[in-house]
Amino acid sequence: PAQRVPPPMNFETQQQIQRPAEADQQFRSGSSPAAVGPSAMFPCGPGRREFVWQMGAGFAGLALSSLLEGDGFFANSAAAAETQSLHFPAKAKSCIFLMMNGAPSHVDTFDYKPALTTYAGKTLPEDAKFINSGNRKMGFLTPNWRRFRPGGDSGLLISDYFPRVREHADKLAVIKSCHADSHAHGSALVAMNTGSTFIGRPSLGGWAVYGLGTENESLPGYVVILDKRGGPISGQPNWSSGFMPSTYQGTLFRPVGNPVLNLKGPDHIDRVAQRSQLDLLAKLNDQHLTARPGGSDLSARIASYELAYRMQAEAPEAVDLGQETQQTLNEYGVGRQPTDEYGRNCLIARRLVERGVRFVQLYSGGGHLEDTWDAHESIEKNHGQHGAEVDQPIAALLKDLERKGLLESTLVVWGGEFGRMPFSEGKDAPGRNHNPYGFCMWMAGGGVKGGTSYGATDELGFQAVENRAHVHDIHATILHLMGLNHERLSYFHQGREETLTDVFGNVIHDIVA
Fold first, then answer.
1. Alpha-carbon distance values, 17 to 9, 21, 371, 498 (Å)
2. Distances (CA, A) of 167 to 117, 409, 470
């Protein structure tokens, strides 16, 4: 069964109060009130706050605890915490998020707009010029750069930037009415990953691991593999644990070479000696933590030492592509350019979910501008390059997951932080600017109704107009498919129950099988 690490006691602010489940955890573990009393919370000595503490945690607190225990309150709270892992039967056990960093153009990939050919060379209608263009030029309406063709029995129209993915059209649910809150890459990427344009909140992968845990204690529950050209411009906050313990942040694997460095220790220290060292270190750390309850960072560091020790045995095998057949390597494009890097990453993602890793995110595009999908200069040049890098590996991933019986239990998500405008940036400028008003994403596997198209942008692809799907709706749907209710999956922080979608978000039931 999945093992869920419960959130540790939290005394980060003096305004926070100890929650019943945490108090029960101390009671059951034999911790005395003094261990978490005023000396820990108020190291400066007796005062007004200590008086309030004593009033709340003295005889009156004991009486209240006795009454609550008699009513079974603590037992019910503990049981609720232990069973939070699933709110209802899950469609997907794991998720692979294919993040196209830089924002691919929806009108050139999965959202065909014939009206752009009809009105080619014209400017955007006057009533649409309220648009925030990010101080970039608003040029002329420009048709799709490559031909769209129907795929599968569903006939979903997919462009020639993704001919291999088009072969799996009947597996895809294309959401064509997405919209976001920012036209800037940094904040939009953070929002796509955390639900907010503000830095400091837990990422989607962190929420998934917090809610479900991992099925393999010898591997991280949440893995992120960046592009060798660099990471997203907003960096680490995209896979951060935010206000949650750092146990739930993403673990970075290297995009080329050995994905995890320094797993093998010095030759003169064997596993027995290393185990003895870790046991001593854990004992010292536990003593330090007992005297300073609520140290979530220290708890996470202790757990990371143990995870690193277990990874030494299992991680090398998990990322060893030498165990794969040559046919499989060829299907992913491993060993050939331009597909080698993303092909390896997609294959590693399959091997990780096969071994119980809960959430894997693969970035295509790194750094900034043309090294990402940020096609300001030329859609054809930019998307031609990046599409060629990822099309075959993504198609192989879908095929391989299905062949191994993993597609039904693995949710695959494709998308960027926003879309791109239906017009060029100038008369002779074949690139497109950012568009948060309307863009598309797709999902496959993991309980998704394949061969479907949901929502729509207007006839020009400028903004979402039908069945609009905000980033919160995308997140709510992903959690739903993984057996989690986005309104019930919460974390207590600074006096408030926080959720990934805050108080927003609706599950897109029309794409759920």
1. 10, 12, 48, 16
2. 26, 21, 28
pLDDT tens figures, 250-277:
999 987 777 776 666 666 667 677 677 7
* CA distance readout (Å), 249 to 200, 236, 455: 12, 9, 33
- Looking at residue 466, the DSSP 8-state letter turns out to be E
Answer yes or no: are the C-beta atoms of 434 and 421 closer than 8 Å. Answer: yes
How far apart CA 231 and CA 503 sit, in angstroms, is 30
Long-range contacts for 129-132 (Cβ within 8 Å, ≥24 apart)?
A: 131/421, 131/437, 131/462, 132/183
Spatial neighbors of 509 by CB under 8 A, at least 6 apart, are: none
Q: Residue 302: is its pLDDT beyond 80?
A: no
Q: How far is it, in rounded angstroms, from Cα 386 to Cα 208? A: 29
Q: What percent of the chain has pLDDT over 70?
A: 74
Predicted TM-score of the model (pTM): 0.78
CB 188 within 8 A of CB 197: yes
Q: What is the DSSP letter of 484?
A: -
Place of tokens 């960093």: 101
Q: What are phi and psi of 129, to 5 degrees?
A: -85, 15
Q: Examine the pLDDT at 68 and tell me if it is beyond 50.
A: no
Count Cα atoms within 13 angstroms, Cβ side, for 272.
0
Residue 473 φ/ψ region, left for φ over 0, alpha for ψ in the -120 to 50 degree band, beta for the rest: alpha
Count of beta carbons in the 10 Å neighbourhood of residue 471: 29
The number of C-alpha atoms within 13 Å of 386 and in the hemisphere containing its C-beta is 30
Alpha-carbon Rg for the chain in angstroms = 25
Residue 47's CB is within 10 A of a number of other CB atoms, namely 11
Q: DSSP character for 487?
A: T
Token pair belonging to 19: 């929650």
Which pair of structure tokens corresponds to residue 127? Answer: 């009533």
Identity of the amino acid at 142? T
Flag whether pLDDT at 76 surpasses 50.
no
Cα–Cα distance between 55 and 504 in angstroms, integer? 39
Amino acid at 399: K
Q: State both tokens at 254.
A: 């290297």
In this structure, the number of other CB atoms found within 10 A of the CB of residue 311 comes to: 18
> Both tokens of residue 475?
């997140």
Contact 142, 111 (CB under 8 A): no
Residue 506's contacts (CB-CB under 8 Å, 6 or more residues apart) are: 472, 473, 476
Is the distance from CB of 151 to CB of 142 less than 8 angstroms? Answer: no
User: Nearest Cα to 385, choosing from 3, 73, 66, 102?
Assistant: 102
Mapping DSSP to helix (H, G, I), strand (E, B) and coil, where does residue 508 land?
coil
What angle do the packed helices 296-318 and 340-354 form, to 10 degrees?
110
Determine the Cα–Cα distance for residues 469 and 457; give it in Å rounded to an integer: 11
> Got the DSSP string for 66-96?
HHHHHTTHHHHHHHHHHTTT-SS--S-SEEE
